[in-house]
Amino acid sequence: MAIDYSEKIPNNVDLASNKTLQRALEQWQPGFQQWWAEMGPEQSQTSDVYLRTAISVEAKGWAQFDYVKMPDYRWGIFLAPAEEGRKVNFGAHKGEAAWQEVPGEYRSTLRRIIVTQGDTEPASVEQQRHLGHTCPSLYDLRNLFQVNVEEGRHLWAMVYLLHAHFGRDGREEGEALLERRSGDADNPRILTAFNEKTPDWLSFFMFTFITDRDGKFQLAALAESGFDPLSRTCRFMLTEEAHHLFVGESGVARIIQRTCEVMVQHKTDDPVKLRSLGVIDLPTIQKYLNFHFSVTSDLYGAEISSNAASFYTNGLKGRYEETKITDDHSLEGSEYAYMDVVNDQVVSRHAQAVTLLNERLRDDWVSDVQAAIDRWNKVPAKLGVPFQFTLPHKGFNRKIGLFAGHHISPEGKLMSEVEWTHQHKNWMPTEADRLFVHSLMGRVVAPGKFASYIAPPARGINNQPVEFEYVRFN
Ligand SMILES: [Fe+2]
Ligand SMILES: [Fe+2]
To answer: Ligand 1: distance of its center to the CA of 157 in Å?
Structure first.
């Protein structure tokens, strides 16, 4: 499964043997490059960035590191190796050979799934395009750019599927993916969380920590798909995604670390004092966590969903780690728990598991987020700072699903509108909090130097030293 870099579009799908497809993608390519020039990271076009590029799709040793100007990045089409004899592993078609072509009856549904996933990829690049101006270090700037070029590649991954399997409709969708813009009033991206701003680096790290993690779970569910090209595409995307999650988790951990160090050094937990010392007080970090957690929770959709049920029954989208689960993979007759608001109380209920697949995927994501928060909490513990981060209740600040329209405290208590109005500023970043965080966002680009609010990483990228010149400006 070597990747062919001699072609205009690097690929491991033998694109050269399908001239029609190759031509269609080559026609789409200039539009993508134009989009990158307009909506990619600002003022980055001439810089040399120490980036990794995929050179194989094998799990070990697929990346090569070198200086690249981002507009010259070799975006391409990389699918994980085909699994011989792969079957549809769940739902009504379980046991059939996995589909190499789109089944006619699922054509529009699959197209919608692919477009919705595809739309998030350029959206995040657009959301993050200003951040280079305020990078806390060269190391972080390089990580931002790495995430950006790979989200660009993920767009390629989805556009390949649209072009290869959905004919003219697919090509039109490919165009539209370059036309929508994050936050645009007339032509927004499809999902709400991808129209929010990512105005500062704490938001960026929270986004890559939590929202890219939603990406991981969506891709993992699609990697189970009976439509084999989608499965193979998503499997390779997941290997790239792991780095994005690392950037987010370690980024926040380094901010926590720096704050805790200053707390110990100055023997204080007073937010005003800490802010004057150039670090972000821990309660403010908790508020950012609450905000990003709740907004990203909504991406999973309503708890009870007939769409999710039919995606599953039809073999299009599985559960997280479907093939590792030991049950009959049909969900017939099985139940699953969810939460609802009944008579002014938050209660636990049960319903048919097949209707609760959004909720189940959200639960899998919550456990993964919680495990990462447990890792964060070791930072204050190690430094003797008595503070622990906690996830808010699932119903907190939700706009979609059964909690929408209700006010739920982080502890899970149902509140009146009045109570919420009094208290929500203790739980979510206020304008003043955001302004303060923004005020710390100076640009630090001397090699080995870091902004006041963030600790250096434990090690550099690809065994390079922390003070390596990860970005060279030209
Ligand atoms: Fe992505
Ligand atoms: Fe990502």
So the answer is: 10
